[in-house]
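To: structure subgroup
Subject: Chain for Friday's discussion

All,

I'm putting the inputs and outputs inline so they're searchable in the archive.
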Amino acid sequence: MARYIGPKCKLSRREGTDLFLKSGVRALDSKCKLETPPGVHGQRRGRLSEYGTQLREKQKVRRMYGVLERQFRNYFASARNMPGITGSNLLQLLERRLDNVTYRVGFGDSRAQARQRVLHGHFTVNGRKVDIPSFVVKAGDEVGWKASSMEKDFVKEIKETIPKRAVPRWLELDAANLTGKVSNLPEEQDIGATVDTRLIVEFYSR
């Protein structure tokens, strides 16, 4: 299955919440009615079954981070084999993706934009170029821009606006040098969205 490239609003409406897929810090426009599912029959849909509720929660998180179903299933398998709570482990693995980290520190206006910049080879981890969006960072890792990328116009714009961006508590931002550091591993409350990981665990435990 290919990565979804259709309207971002449609996905947010389907899940009934803002998935933060739009570029920039602006909210979704007024035409995006989150309370109404997409499609001409959206208003006729009844109450979800237990399976449907679990599915929607899984789809919400998967779409929020922009990963495909097979990737998401692999993340869940890894989370289940880690010590601790499976749901929290799952969110931690997703948050530690390089494309998400660069988005979180303000190097991209959306996860999709950050992912594209990772693919284009603009970033380094501990001084080494990494162009794999799914690369998982560790506590103590430092993320920065490749030297040649610092001269790009969009990087100069980021340097002017980034002091206004707030970063999660598990990350540190050096706005002057445009570097970010993973100071701690993220916790479930750090993702900035309401997620019921229990439903996701139940979905894959059927």
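Points worth raising on Friday:
The chain has eight helices and five strands.
The mean pLDDT is 85.

D.
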